[in-house]
Fold this protein.
Amino acid sequence: MIDEFAKEYLHDDLRRIREALVWKLDGLSEYDIRRPLTSTGTNLLGLVKHSATWEARYFGEVFGRPFPEPLPRWDDKAASGTDLWVAEDETREQMIGLYRRVWEHADATIDELAIDAPGHVPWWPRPNVTLFDILVHMLTETNRHAGHADILREQLDGAVGVEQRRGMQEYDAAYWANHRAKVELAARAADRTSI
């Protein structure tokens, strides 16, 4: 009984955060969803592509249920990092479509297997896992990437949060400028060397 509750609880959270990651693209230009917004090149559509690629691997090959579409092998050095950005001929619709097909495949794996079903992650130092381990791992990773996306989206237009709304736009620019100034002042006061 507790196993089914735990599985459904984790699965529901994963479904919710997947949607949050995808909505971060809504209303933005092709350039804005693709452009690198950090020094390491992190970008919104790349986060979706990366999440799709790894969720397909974790709920696919780890449980002997490979995702039916081609993916570069996890140990292919030439393809390393290509899941973190999107080429000009890869569209937003293709990446979102891929991610949604991965969800269907992953959801089928989660629904059909017991929470203690064994899996094997060849790229982990301790490769023998259970569905519970992978559910927790993927929920953690997807939340992490949704947090990255939240910060990137905030930089672009101020939209933040898990649900599709314009959180920071509830206040005007003067409010946020004053708030930021207070935070900056507190940071400077705490670090006497910056004065």
User: Anything to note?
Assistant: Residues 116 and 133 are 9 Å apart (CA to CA). The beta strands are 118-120, 128-130. The longest helix spans residues 131-157.
